[in-house]
Amino acid sequence: MLAYCGVTESPSFLGVGLVTMALRGRWVPIPKVARTAAAVDAIVLEEIAERRRTGSRPDDCLTMFLELNEQEDEPHDDAFLARSMRGLMLAGYAATAVTLGWLADYLVHQPDALAALEESVDRGEDGYLDAVVAEALRLRPALPVTGRRAQRAFNLNGLLVPPGAYIVIAITALHQRADLHPDPLAFRPERFLGSRPETHTWLPFGGGVHRCLGDELALFEARVLLRTLLQHRRLSAVDARPGGRASRTHPLLVPAGGAPVVLSARDRTGQSAPPNG
Ligand code: HEM
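That is the input. Now the predicted structure with protoporphyrin IX containing FE docked in place:
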């Protein structure tokens, strides 16, 4: 699975994605993607066959997929189920990992926010923690754009959208509108303190019927990981360069240079011990 994820993170995958959009959805096959995808699908297909053979139904996502599929009037074939599982695993892994990277990157370059977060974590509160995660997702949503294809013509605030048109929803541009988010380029978690982000002005997980399926899981993961990390370690910057710099060659919005940080042991008084890398 990691080999497949690695290929989907390459600049050539980004290029193919852009060409696919230009060709109105016609996918240009990349042999390396096809090879690594087939290797993942083979494992899932074997697992499906094994479950059918033994009648085993462990309490997991694949069982849910299989059971829902059995209830369909026209069930999908196993290749479709394996492909869908692969999509879910990719969606669940990459965007969450990238978001955790951005959180570390912003925090080490914003000592005030980091100190406020450490204090709130020590008090056992989650409010500031959630605000920090929401602010990182506002400034650096792992998926900076999403899109839809118009099934029929419709009028969008005076603009007639023809059927078949691709609509690109620029999440980052919306998140950086000063009328919606004052001082939009500043990392200011306080803007989300005491209120949940607003559905139509904060779209890191998209919206509507195709809104991210894993949004709550991703937020939960970020909260637990950050809280646990700060309880045991102190984060600091590797160098004085400002945070928030994005790579230009990655299909997702990821930190340039991989966001390295220094982790130090944290003693019971909250003081940091010498860095251990
Ligand atoms: C911070 C982490 C994540 C971010 C920023 C993120 C972001 C997104 C975005 C922007 C979309 C497109 C939504 C739209 O077009 O309206 C999406 C779709 C999706 N995401 Fe996530 N996602 C994250 C984590 C996850 C996780 C953990 C899972 C699963 C375990 C997941 C599963 C999916 C799936 C299945 C879709 C497709 C939904 C559909 O087309 O109906 N995502 N995600």
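The chain has nine helices and seven strands.
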